[in-house]
Amino acid sequence: MRRVLSVVVVALVLGLAFAEAARIAFFGGYAEPQGADTGFIAHLESLGHTVTYHMPVSAGGEAQVDLANANDLVIISESIGSSNVSSGAGGTFHLQDIATSVISFEAFMYDEALWTGWNNMVDFGTSARSNSPAGIESLSDTIYIADPSHQMAAGKTGAVVAYTTPYSACFGMVGSGATVVATIDEAGQYPATFVYPKGALLVDGVTVTPGKRIGLFIGQGGYGSIPDPPGELQFSYISDDGLALFDAAVNYALPIPGDVNRDCIVNILDLISIRGRMGQSVDSGDNWKADVNNDSKINILDLIAVRNKLNTRCQ
User: Fold this and answer.
1) DSSP labels for 182-229?
2) What is the pLDDT of residue 266?
3) Which end of the chain, N or C, is more open, meaning fewer C-beta atoms within 10 Å of its C-beta?
């Protein structure tokens, strides 16, 4: 008992720092990570996150839901087939009712997710293709910050060189429930990075999203691109500023450290949740959410971690 009390006192006095690593599910288009996906995963792991790679298929909705529920965040790469995260072309997004945040840089699933309307290369798509909208037909290394006050802007303003070489970018013509953080064009007509916050109405004006839904600017090569892009997306094409925007989106999407019940505030309910799971296995159900300091145990140190974050809220 004396030893436990000593640990508590020291932790409280020193404001013990706890790891803020997260569990991330990364959806890619191959049986094993390839191309840019390999770089993004390695980057996330270098930041301390645990990444589980998954190749989604249209018929595998249950597996996608289970994986989303077992992680803090789902990232959907441009390498997937867009219909593989829904019940088929024009179908329902498998993760529609999941509270876990979702980041996607596969623009061609935006319609099924109800982030945009249904018209290809009008409501959603990529720049630098033969059928891209007027004004964004060319490759570019630059996007434009529309809301510099937003966390996902990473403190940047104006024009941001997001690529090391001119490339394409995703766009989505979002509904009024979304916040546009960056656009492809300087005029601000084509949203490239955006978010529907938790509780926002999606583009249909009816569906409420139970978690953050984020579209990210990162584009893709493809048939009919003009001029031909430098090939399939490579991690090396993302500039330091582009990577900072990626990191800012991930950090914004992740739950607040200590928000065990995922209600966007750290409070006594989170302390109660941890107290009820102390001594239990982190591998049982969603107990991993109560392992706030990521030491594979649920104990008094997790209570201290939450105590140090009390009253912290989502942006």
Assistant:
1) EESSTTS-SEEEEEE-TT-B-TTSSPBPSS-EEE--B----TTBSS--
2) 86
3) N
Reported residue count of the chain is: 315
173, two tokens: 């013509």
Contacts of 13 by beta carbon, 8 Å cutoff, 6+ apart:
none
Which of 3, 33, 26, 20 lies closest to 234, judged by CA? 33
Q: 126 near 168, Cβ under 8 Å?
A: yes
25's CB contacts (< 8 A; 6+ apart) are 51, 52, 54, 67, 68, 70, 71, 73, 74, 75
Q: How far apart are CA 289 and CA 72, in angstroms?
A: 9
Burial string for 270-288 (b: 16+ CB within 10 Å, else e) reads bbebbeebeeeebeeeebb
Q: Is the dihedral of CA 27, 32, 38, 44 positive or negative?
A: positive
Q: What is the pLDDT of residues 288-308, one digit of tens each?
A: 888 888 888 989 998 898 888
One-letter amino acid identity for 184? I
How many Å apart are CA 309 and CA 267, to the nearest integer? 8
Between the two ends of the chain, the Cα-to-Cα distance in Å is 39
| Alpha carbon separation from 229 to 16, 135, 234, 247, 284 (Å, rounded) | 48, 17, 11, 24, 46
Residue that the structure tokens 């993004």 belong to: 40
Q: Give the whole-angstrom CA distance, residue 168 versus residue 211.
A: 28
69 within 8 A of 100, measured Cβ to Cβ: yes
Whole-angstrom distance, CA of residue 64 vs CA of residue 20? 24
State the DSSP code for 238: B
pLDDT tens figures, 205-229: 999 999 999 999 999 986 555 555 5
pTM: 0.87
Encoded amino acid at 287, one letter: N
Using DSSP, state whether 260 is helix, strand or coil: coil
Residue 137, H or E segment: none
